[in-house]
Amino acid sequence: MSGTASPPIAQHGLGSGPQRGDTRIVMIVYGPGQEKVVSVFAEVLGKPFQSRDSFGDVGPQDHDLVIGIPADRAKIGVALRDQAMVVVINAHCVQLGMPPDKDLSAHCDYEFLYTDTPFSRRDLARFTSHILGQLNHHETLMAKPRTYFISTTFPDVRAALPNLDILTVGADAVEIRVDLLKEPLEDGKFASVPSLSYVGEQVMLLRQRTELPIIFTTRCTRENGRFPMDNPQLYYDYLYRAIQWGVEYIDVELWLPEAIRKKLWEQRGNSRIMSAFHDFSGNFKWPSHYAEHIFRESRQYADIVKMIAIINDHNENFELEYFRSKVRSEYPGSPPLSAVNMGETGQFSRTLNRVFTPITHPLLPIIAAPGQMSAAEINQALALLGQLPKKNIYGIGSTPSRGVVLQAPFYEKCFNELGLPHHLSIVQRQPKNPACMEAWCNQRNFGGAYLNPPVSYNSLVGNSAFFASVNNGTGPLLTEAARVIGMVDTIVVRSDASSSASSAPTSVPSSPRPSKSTFGKPIVTVTGGLPPNTSLIFDNASWRGILSTLTRDLAPSAYFGRAAVVLASSSDDAACAIYALKALKVGKIYTVGFKTPPSLSRDIPIEPFNSLESLQRARTVGTTNGDENGGAGAPFVVVSAFGPEKSNIVGMLVRVFGSKGSGHKGKVFLDLADGTIPRKMDTGLVAEQSGFAAYDGADVTAFTTVEILRLLVGQNVPYSFVRYDQGWRQKHTLGVTTTPYQYHIYVRFSYRCSPPIAIH
Ligand SMILES: O=C1C[C@@](O)(C(=O)O)C[C@@H](O)[C@@H]1O
User: Fold this and answer.
1) Which atom of ligand 1 is nearest to the CA of 276?
2) Residue ID of nearest Cα to ligand 1 atom 2
3) What ranges does the record list as Low complexity composition bias (predicted)?
4) Nearest by Cα to 563 from 653, 631, 610, 662
5) CB environment 684-702: b (16+ within 10 A), e (fewer)
6) What's the rounded mean pLDDT across residues 580-608?
7) Alpha carbon nearest to ligand 1 atom 5, residue
8) What is the DSSP string of 216-232?
9) 3 state SS of 373
10) Distance from the CA of 256 to the center of ligand 1, in angstroms?
11) CA dist., res. 372 & res. 186, Å (int)
């Protein structure tokens, strides 16, 4: 980045990064024979653990520990504990029987329900990161232009699990309709209200299988649900327990007594409250004092206000739009409004709502409300209405880049699954001819691009009069990550009109026809340039892929203040890893193979390994605060961006910092090298043998793909869906020597209905 005038910074944040969150002492209540769960919590949080027999034995000196306490001992003092000092989690293995002890459930702050065979480490990491406020989904979601949630309507979520990946494509959250669950009874009938035990297990199963935030809904009989209305306390009991289970969103109906809504609001911890109001009377009017009164009441105890009504006339959809803009301007600072109309007449409003639009999927047994649409139907409707114009999106590679080609069918598949009209072209960049990039990006219908391998900001802008001239001559907007990392892997197009989706005039012809071309040349006829009201944002998604991989099985606090090693042949290759490690607040970074530029070394001690002594020093350094290493201790995480040809150096370092004989356990190794290229040494295996949990580039690629799709088309696809597709392709793909032509054939026949992909 040096040598260039500061480029403008894009304000399209993705929410905050990892936070320190709740710093109270974490205490784990465990059941008979389950003490090992305490050590797993401790590992996930990155702390040592100890056991105690009473709450009185815990004091401020235990701040750096996770404390385990047996359930029978915990029962004695849990109600009288010092709540300002400790946060207590009742960890209950459902295989020991359900429900957990009622007193413990009631008095502990949180409850983690788990199975020990299989044990879901990912679920535990996600639960702890959420309840302790280390990761915040809500901010990230609210920064998206549109969000969707899928309303699952299964009587038993087990039926949904095999299809969950495909069901949740396009969804930002999954709703569990607790009132629709059917708990079988011994007499062959079903419970009129599913018990908390049954519901707890259902939530656990769902959470073990999806990384998406969950919305917990107990819909009442008057609002199209099955929960009885005669006892509001029942709602409190279920909704409060959902907060204890670490559910991210709690749906609280507005008819519930204010005392209950207020209490839930005050007790919500890091969960978010969706206030819910449904009117099925057919008499509801958006332009009314009553509608405004409902909004005012809802917003008092809400992170999101949901208002849903049956309407009789299409014009009422426009009335809703007026209501939406009125509350936005007259009630500034209010929580976001999610409002739609029901029935076929109301479907139009479902295409216009931008905050948590409820969606269904053809694989669901029933729709959750009249008029619900799938994500694909909403996108198709938007496309027909001219609100989602067909765009040309590019996968830009460089010779001989297979990565960009390999990812293409997946993007195609997602466009297809989501009913997006866009056209994806795979093209090859010529490093000495920046004009080729201009030809793709300077088009009226340019919809963004992913670059694999990433390209440095300087070479993109320094060599292109077009890029330098965009945004009225100020150049592309840079996100903070792209600025610091200096490498761009995603080009996002943003219309400066109020809505990006509606910026293009409806008369814009659909995508220009493909012209005869060769790989490396523009494959579409350029029709006019980038419209004047359009900004280009240069972003970097790869660092988020690294961050998500590193926090899949560990809470961010596992990294706070600890030391990391980064190996790479150049600072460009290392930059994403360093940025991600800084976001994880590591205490120190050792480097091998490159010189760290000042932009990356700001705010963190960086030390190159330049001798065997320096290596040895880092290995033996103490783990206690105040040592000569700034308290960071011996390296906990090793990230290698070395190519496969240097695998033996990586293997050697991993052995040096491994646990054999050193007593350290549960370290992390991430290998960013392309796993399809043969290497001298299986570094992942060596790392595992040396006490590391090993992750590879495929995990990062999958998380990065999720991120890039979010940036380019604003839609969420589950990580597991990407991983599944990667696995499928590994089995079916034609090997590393695949020619582009063979690959073209594979792509053409792999995906039903998918338009052909342009590879020449
Ligand atoms: O609140 C809502 C919205 C909804 O009623 C709909 O209209 O799509 C569907 C419900 O499952 C959800 O809880």
Assistant:
1) 1
2) 358
3) 499-517
4) 631
5) bebbebbbbbbbbbbbbbb
6) 96
7) 369
8) EE--BGGGTS-B-SS-H
9) strand
10) 17
11) 35
Give the residue-averaged pLDDT of 618-632. 58
- Give the whole-angstrom CA distance, residue 352 versus residue 311: 16
d(CA 472, CA 534): 10
Of 150, 175, 361, the one to substitute when testing ligand 1's pocket (max ligand atoms within 8 A of C-beta) is 175
* Greatest Cα pair distance in the chain: 79
| Ligand 1 touching residue 372 (CB < 6 A) | yes
C-alpha span between 375 and 366 (Å, rounded): 16
User: Which residue's CA lies nearest to atom 3 of ligand 1?
Assistant: 358
| pLDDT tens readout for residues 688-714 | 999 999 999 999 999 999 999 999 999
Give the strand pairing for 487-495 and 534-539: antiparallel
From residue 695, how far is each of 72, 271, 577, 673, 700 by CA, in Å? 39, 30, 13, 11, 8
217 CA distance to ligand 1 centroid (A)?
9
Buried b (16+ CB within 10 A) or exposed e, 444-461: bbbbbbbbbbbbebeebb
Atom of ligand 1 nearest to the CA of 342: 7
Residue of minimum CA distance from atom 10 in ligand 1: 368
- Look-up of token digits 């073209």: 744
pLDDT digits (tens, 9 = 90+) for 508-531: 222 333 333 333 344 444 457 899
- Do residues 709 and 411 touch, judged by C-beta distance below 8 A? yes
Q: Say how many CA atoms lie within 13 Å of 396 toward its Cβ.
A: 26
For helices 542-550 and 697-713, angle between their N-to-C axes, nearest 10 degrees: 130
Pocket test for ligand 1, best of 147, 148, 151, 304 (most atoms within 8 A of CB): 151
Q: Residue 426: enclosing H or E segment and its boundaries?
A: strand 423-429
pLDDT digits (tens, 9 = 90+) for 726-749: 665 555 443 333 333 333 323 332
CA 391 / ligand 1 centre spacing (Å): 31
Atom of ligand 1 nearest to the CA of 153: 11
Q: Does the beta carbon of 389 lie inside 6 Å of ligand 1? A: no
Please tell me if the CB atom of residue 254 comes closer than 6 angstroms to any atom of ligand 1. Answer: no
d(CA 115, CA 126) in angstroms, rounded, equals 15
Closest C-alpha to ligand 1, atom 13? 217
| CA within 13 Å, CB half, 426 | 27
Q: Which atom belonging to ligand 1 lies closest to the Cα atom of 370?
A: 7
> From the CA of 394, how far away is ligand 1's center (Å)?
36
Residue 276: enclosing H or E segment and its boundaries?
strand 272-279
**Distance from residue 429's CA to the centre of ligand 1 (Å):** 46
What is the distance between the terminal CA atoms of the chain, rounded to a whole angstrom? 34
